[in-house]
Amino acid sequence: MSILVGKKAPDFTVPAVLADGQIVDSFSLSETIKGKYAIVFFYPLDFTFVCPSEIIAMSHRMDKFREMGVEVIGVSIDSHFTHNAWRNTPVEQGGIGAVEYTLAADMDHAIAKAYGIESEGGDSYYPAGVAMRASFVIDQKGIVRSQVVNDEPIGRNMDELVRVVDALQFFEENGQVCPAGWNKGDKGMDTSPEGVASYLAESAKSL
């Protein structure tokens, strides 16, 4: 697995199912997220187990992500046709319903390889060849600012992705860094010895 934090997010153009249900042959990441924040999140396979809970949880937070100016793109190695079938399967039957963001089709595994999260199998719960349960937060310049990978049985907390974007935007707007456990509305920290001392004097016991 490679580390992409601080590097340009690998671009891709692949078939996809858009948020409105339209199937397209050429969805471009760079064109879609140009000048915007983005989350690219990978999951192993359609019609599986932990994956639908994550995908639905992400869709439930799309109003918040849109408010923050964030594009969301889900990616697995399944085809756009399988993505579409899963969207058209009722939630009560293991489907995901009409999720409110794009699902991209990484059929040749090129995206998973470019992001360094194609499973090699081994001692992991992942079968070889699928995308790991990975999330990438990308800034408005196309640079990866956060990268998190969970093993297959461990579902992600989509509220944490909201928090990370909040923290990134706070830093960009205020120039202050976000200490441990920071949430929107909390104080930041000045990047100086005095700033650290001031913050810890006030907040260390609550960390």
From TrEMBL:
GO terms for molecular function: thioredoxin peroxidase activity. Pfam families: 1-cysPrx_C, AhpC-TSA. It is found in: Cytoplasm. The active site is at residue 51. Keywords: Cytoplasm, Disulfide bond, Oxidoreductase, Peroxidase, Redox-active center. Its main location: cytoplasm. GO terms for biological process: cell redox homeostasis; cellular response to stress; hydrogen peroxide catabolic process; response to oxidative stress. Residues 3-170 form the Thioredoxin domain. It comes from the Bacteria. Gene3D superfamilies: Glutaredoxin (3.40.30.10). The keyword Oxidoreductase applies. GO terms for cellular component: cytosol. The keyword tRNA processing does not apply. InterPro entries: AhpC/TSA, Peroxiredoxin, Peroxiredoxin_AhpC-typ, Peroxiredoxin_C, Thioredoxin-like_sf, Thioredoxin_domain. Thiol-specific peroxidase that catalyzes the reduction of hydrogen peroxide and organic hydroperoxides to water and alcohols, respectively. Plays a role in cell protection against oxidative stress by detoxifying peroxides. Belongs to the peroxiredoxin family. AhpC/Prx1 subfamily. This is Thioredoxin peroxidase.
